[in-house]
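Please fill in the sequence for the structure shown.

STRUCTURE ENCODING:
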């Protein structure tokens, strides 16, 4: 019995090779019909014998292109039309509907083979890509995702590229950024010259996928020192790009899961334990036993390492200390001219900036700490329809969130919203995501902190309903939303600081929380914070609530304790065999660590033991407090959130203790635990209040 069905797919189904896949599948099964992209996804109709149609539907599910993600599928029966042949039809644009835009994707193995194969016409070509890989979000100006809507619009394809583009059997069929040396973007100089200069110790500004990098030979201590001095980047660690996985193994301890995160299509920076004897200059990541490592993710990167004298390059964002990453050639020369000795640029414009993403490994899974290139603008499915709204996020590590249907659309990492340039980046990205996803916010959510630029921005928006959301409530709601929870949970939000409902700065909070509201059941003891919000940058100081105390913990001098350095150093030196902890008090609603501080002041044990006891004490205290809240409330689900839980040692100890007491534990995975995650929480809370 012949039959005809229409299939509609939503999800990431454009720009990932889905139409050629469907075309080839239909050919194989001898089905008639068509496939096309519309602004909400992909539509196909097939007609043929029942068994073939069934096989088609099954293959859609099981054999689809690796980068596609089918969020949902509807199949409708249609009357037979007697169609002959199978066709790919032109895209349909419908206003008000939208398709999910793919993140940028690292160079695939086949494209790598193309640009490194001496007989290939793309040999040595730095902009090689196909439907399985290449730039997406950073070059897309509008949807549907077609070449005229990208920054490739100015490059007319040559005859050979056009033939590939129109050949459904070709890997480059409808690859919108398709290009070759004859017709595509070009570098400003030879790669060999860049290699020679890097090997000579020069600092290069290199235009990448989502912005400029500043690069130098990671093994060249003098070059690294000059880069650090010129970039005036105190002691924030530099990320390192290595030639391949073997080179990563030489520098860091890379287990199976970390190797998978490093070499996957998203190619984030993975924070890994540095190997002893890794022979890297101290200034790459001063006093930091971890190292942020990534693998090449564009053909340009691969070609830079090919045959080069170096196996590792410092690749740090091309910006001045707190400003957004530079994307424009002219701008790069103006802003980075004093830092870089030489520029390697190209003539393909970057439409959207995206920094490198950062992940850490925990319990065998990658945990996103900075969600940007390779991840944004992939949406999160919150499992229920939300009104269209904007959540402005926080101040540091700002990310905002838009909602549309069941989608939470998190922006890429915007950065610390403390200067005009970053605010402009925020506004440009907001305008772009509103356009791509066809969002018209009816309401805006914001942090209660009156001094945040994001708050002032929200309050200045005319005509929208406004929802102020408490910082730690947003952290917990974010963790709930990511894990698809409803109802009430015990929420533990530990971070630098957040503005409390009483106007005081809160920091270590135990909440009973739902999307609708929260009660604050316990917190770290209030202490005056020297410098107020400045303590945000010293998480341990404020986590402890004892300004200036941390330098006696470990012999780390006061002047070194900045930019989260204390947390990193303490986490790193922990002696894992030490199970002891210090005393603490629970007095009413207050968790008081003064007894621990008393002991630490007179400690004679070596720093790794002190650091271990310190971590054990925090985990122990959190566990104690959760037990107490469970007794009082009957709740058994715990959400952990806040930037303090970027400390994987503390997270691990806390998780172990809570699980041993049979709590149901929920952690962040795809959304940062730090303030980069609070926009999601703000959004779901505001949506709840709008009901
Ligand atoms: Zn490819
Ligand atoms: Zn070409
Ligand atoms: Fe926070």
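FILLED IN BY: designer on duty
SEQUENCE:
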């Amino acid at each position: 019995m012949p039959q005809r069905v229409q299939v509609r797919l939503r999800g990431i189904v454009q720009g990932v090779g889905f139409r050629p896949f469907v075309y080839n599948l239909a050919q194989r099964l001898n089905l008639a019909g068509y496939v096309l992209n519309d602004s909400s996804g992909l539509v196909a109709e097939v007609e043929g014998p029942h068994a073939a149609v069934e096989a088609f539907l099954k293959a859609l599910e099981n054999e689809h292109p690796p980068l596609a993600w089918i969020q949902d599928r509807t199949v409708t029966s249609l009357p037979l039309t007697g169609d002959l042949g199978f066709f790919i039809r032109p895209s349909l644009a419908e206003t008000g509907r939208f398709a999910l835009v793919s993140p940028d994707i690292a160079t695939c193995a086949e494209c790598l083979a193309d640009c490194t194969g001496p007989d290939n016409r793309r040999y040595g070509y730095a902009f090689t890509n196909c439907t399985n890989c290449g730039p997406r979000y950073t070059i897309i100006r509008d949807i549907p995702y077609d070449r005229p809507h990208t920054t490739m619009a100015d490059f007319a394809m040559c005859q050979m590229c056009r033939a590939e583009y129109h050949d459904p059997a070709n890997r480059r069929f409808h690859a919108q950024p398709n290009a070759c040396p004859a017709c595509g973007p070009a570098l400003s100089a030879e790669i060999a010259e860049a290699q020679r200069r890097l090997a000579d110790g020069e600092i290069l500004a290199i235009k990448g996928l989502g912005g400029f990098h500043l690069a130098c030979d990671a093994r060249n201590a003098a070059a690294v020192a000059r880069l650090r001095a010129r970039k005036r980047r105190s002691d924030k660690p530099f990320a390192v790009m290595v030639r391949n996985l073997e080179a990563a193994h030489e520098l860091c301890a890379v287990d199976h899961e970390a190797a998978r995160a490093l070499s996957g299509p998203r190619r984030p920076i993975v924070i890994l334990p540095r190997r002893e004897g890794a022979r890297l200059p101290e200034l790459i990541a001063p006093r930091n036993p971890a190292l942020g490592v990534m693998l090449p993710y564009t053909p340009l990167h691969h070609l830079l390492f090919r045959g080069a004298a170096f196996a590792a390059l410092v690749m740090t964002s091309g910006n001045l200390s707190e400003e957004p990453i530079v994307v424009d050639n002219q701008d790069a020369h103006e802003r980075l001219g004093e830092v870089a000795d030489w520029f390697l640029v190209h003539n393909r414009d970057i439409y959207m900036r995206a920094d490198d993403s950062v992940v850490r490994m925990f319990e065998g899974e990658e945990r996103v700490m900075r969600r940007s290139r390779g991840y944004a603008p992939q949406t999160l499915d919150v499992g229920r329809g939300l009104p269209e709204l904007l959540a402005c996020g926080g101040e540091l590590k700002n990310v905002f969130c838009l909602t549309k249907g069941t989608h939470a659309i998190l922006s890429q990492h915007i950065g610390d919203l403390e200067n005009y340039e970053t605010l402009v980046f925020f506004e440009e990205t907001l305008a772009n995501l509103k356009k791509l996803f066809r969002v018209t916010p009816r309401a805006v959510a914001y942090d209660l902190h009156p001094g945040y630029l994001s708050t002032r921005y929200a309050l200045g928006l005319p005509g929208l309903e406004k929802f102020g959301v408490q910082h730690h409530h947003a952290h917990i709601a974010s963790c709930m939303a990511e894990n698809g929870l409803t109802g009430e949970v015990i929420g533990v939000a530990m971070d630098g600081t957040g503005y409390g409902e009483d106007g005081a700065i809160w920091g270590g909070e135990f909440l009973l929380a739902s999307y609708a509201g929260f009660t604050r059941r316990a917190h770290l003891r209030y202490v005056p914070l020297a410098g107020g919000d400045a303590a945000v940058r010293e998480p341990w100081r404020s986590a402890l609530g004892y300004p200036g105390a941390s330098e006696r913990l470990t012999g780390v001098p006061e002047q070194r304790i900045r930019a989260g350095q204390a947390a990193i150093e303490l986490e790193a030196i922990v002696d894992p065999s030490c199970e002891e902890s210090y005393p603490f008090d629970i007095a009413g609603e207050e968790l008081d660590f003064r007894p621990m501080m008393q002991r630490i002041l007179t400690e004679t044990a070596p720093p790794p033991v002190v650091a271990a006891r310190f971590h054990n004490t925090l985990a122990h205290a959190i566990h104690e407090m959760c037990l107490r809240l469970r007794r009082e409330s009957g709740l058994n689900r715990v959400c952990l959130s806040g930037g303090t839980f970027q400390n994987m040692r503390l997270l691990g100890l806390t998780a172990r203790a809570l699980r041993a007491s049979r709590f149901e534990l929920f952690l962040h995975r795809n959304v940062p635990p730090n303030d980069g995650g609070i926009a999601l929480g703000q959004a779901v809370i505001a949506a709840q209040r709008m009901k």
